[in-house]
Predict the structure.
Amino acid sequence: MRSLFPVTDLTTTGPAAPDREWSLDELAEAYAYPAELTAGPSAGLAAGTPWLRANMVSTLDGAAQHDGRSQPISCAADMRVFGTLRGLADVVIAGAETVRQEGYRPARAREVFAARRAAAGQGPAPAVAVVTGSMDLDFSLPLFTEPLVPTLVVTGAGAPADRIAAARKAGAEVVIAGEGARVDPARVVRELAGRGLTRQLTEGGPRLLGQFVAAGVLDELCLTISPMLTAGDAQRIAGGPGVAVPERFFLASLLEEAGFLFTRYRRTDS
């Protein structure tokens, strides 16, 4: 993986030489969450302020999936970035449909990130938070029966009571983030931050990401651009209602390997 533009600062030389694979530790430095999250008010952000980052992949013609999954348009380097982003996060947020389609399992502890997580006051692995209004989940899956950190189920106050009970019986923590059966995306961010989970990573799917975008709570987008064309009618990385005024993001970093571009964009007011 070689850097086209330095990862940490577009005006200085990056830490990796051309045509050399970045180590996971270097990637962790490159994709570190803002220091202000732990530095407190003097650094510009109040203590406990959440930072919501999204990680998605898209083909050249805008497809976020092929045959209903993202893996066919990904690559080994993309999975290294994927693992790094998980290794830095307090919580991984995903919609129920993505959890079902991608066969989500619990996040695992990785030795390469252990010291970094301990220094940041984090547990051994990020929690997984599943966002669902219907609670249509299989609580016998490893995501619920074998997590290193208890899985969170984020739903609305009007979700079926029997399904909430089933989730709790399976060992999941139920988080109420909306009235009725609907989940409020802005409240998802707040409720998780209220539990100390401020370094937030969403992996979609497109409908959930679209809701975060529409709510104006997405701080950063890590987008892998895959050098593939699929045509068809696959979803874009974000779906749902459009925003009244497009929100501007700036390019924070760009990496390339084998034609794959690993971009990182931040909201202009972040």
In short: The first strand starts at residue 2 and ends at 5. Confidence is low (pLDDT under 50) at residues 1-17, 39-44. The chain is about 25% helix and 20% strand.
